[in-house]
Amino acid sequence: MPRVSEEHLERRRQQILDAARLCFARKGFHDSSMQDVFAESGLSAGAVYRYFKSKDDIIAALATQTMIELRGTMAEAISAEPLPTPAEVITLIARNIVARSGPEGPVRLAPQAWSLALVNPEATGYVREAILAMRGVWEDYAERMRAAGWLPADADTHAVAVAIIGLLPGFILQHLIIGDITPETLARGVRTLLPYGESAAQGG
């Protein structure tokens, strides 16, 4: 397919996502309909359904887009010199999450997307790809920690990534539902459990 056509398709897809985000901000996720998305985007039903089969698919795509943005933030953090500690990386990501989790923030779509992924094959693809990509960045970070001597030379960096990535969904759920957790609270816990590099970071 010609490059121009691919770019046009991606712009149209993003146009739909931007329109849906505005609808969700205005009326909430549950009260927004596909008809609202059609009107906001200025596109016909057929044009929208070419990209997304349902509102659930749009929710999954928006949530995944947010995860991609978080992944970019993390990828930039772990490439820094000197190597940031686990608590520093977690704090950066958690603050990013909080900034995107206002009353109609895109982070609020994440739990809905996870639920959809269990029953909706289209959503499964979006969410699975996002999780695997994020886990891959954590594995890159674990490899850097191992190279820095923060982990044993024979450390299983894949297993480390699998364990660390589990912190984020827990933080998101506690932040959105309970509301009594902050990035700093999470960082203190991580600093206690994973104190790697802390003495160096503090100049000790």
Walk me through this protein's architecture.
This protein has 204 residues and is an all-alpha fold. It has eleven helices and no strands. It has helices at residues 3-27, 34-41, 45-49, 55-78, 86-99, 109-117, 121-147, 157-165, 167-178, 183-193, 198-201. Helix 1 packs across helix 2 and helix 5 (86-99) packs across helix 9 (167-178). The chain starts with a helix and ends with a helix. The mean pLDDT is 89.
Number of DSSP strand runs? 0
Rg value: 19 Å
**Total helical elements:** 11
Helical residues, percent:
over 70%
Which residue ranges are poorly predicted, with pLDDT under 50 across at least 5 consecutive positions? Answer: none
State the secondary-structure class: mainly alpha
N-to-C order of helices and strands: HHHHHHHHHHH
Shape from CA axes? elongated
End-to-end distance: 57 Å
How does the major sheet shape up?
none
Q: Taking all residues together, what is the mean pLDDT? A: 89
What percent of residues are in strands? under 5%
Brief rundown of the structure:
Helix content is 73%, strand content 0%.
Defining traits:
11 helices; 204 residues
